[in-house]
Fold:
Amino acid sequence: MDLNTLLILNEVIRLKSFSKAATVLGMPSSNVSRKVQSLEQQLGLKLVQRSTRSVTATSEGLTVIKLAQGLYDSNQQIQEWLLGQTHIPQGQLTITAPESFAQWPLSDWLLDFKQQYPDIDIELLSDSRQLSFDDYALDFAFRFGQLQDSNLIAKVLATVEFGFYASAGFLKNNGPIESIIALKAAPSIACITEQGTLPFLYKQKSQALAYTPNASFKVKDQLIALKACQKHIGIAFFPKALVAHHDKRHVLKPILEKHWPAPMPLYLLYRNKQSTQALRHKVFIDFLVKQYKAAGMV
Structure:
């Protein structure tokens, strides 16, 4: 049996696609398909089900991959070890983050990181959805707040303070906002994702609460929301660091600070400790920690 074909099969099943597997493996898609077909003929088993949209493993295919998992893990360890022998961080990092965080500050940090480590290739998938590590071959994911149960390692990078902001012009035209009732009744600006409108979080008598604002201005881009807030359109809910960085003229004023929610943890997720032994992973984590310390967020 060609052991390399087992590695190819593993990638096809993991990514549910011949073309994606071919990209990862650096092979023509036709070669990947032919190798899997050859293995099926050799074993006399149907290993994958093909459709126009995706590739799924049969029960026999899953069994073969499970039995060959040690081979795949060993191959990964050897590849990582070989990269580590050069003492030069190299290889690819595939990262996902919520769109607003990816736009700032992560995009600025990744540009600095790329300049510092030019031999590391970076693929950033900015998406508010919680993308699958297996489907997208992720190395790292940035996520806020409560996490879904998983076998991923979650490292707290920082705690991020969120609060309510309005422009001085808005408060002059609409009057002061001195209660949660007044906040809910006031014109607001909201950020949206594929899942819907993001809630406004607050605390009242030490209780953590939330509500979905009936916003007259909704955008996916947090920086557009900030500009709208500066233009007196409504009240918005922002990370404090975002306002400090982008509102240099101090147009926005914090309101209802006693009702601001507890700082929200920002997590860096990865598969397991072994998966971060590669030099490119180590330097990336160290780089992130330094960035957060410099920003006073750790």
About this structure: The chain has three domains: 3-78, 86-156+265-294, 162-262. The mean pLDDT is 88. The domain at 162-262 is CATH 3.40.190.290 (D-Maltodextrin-Binding Protein; domain 2).
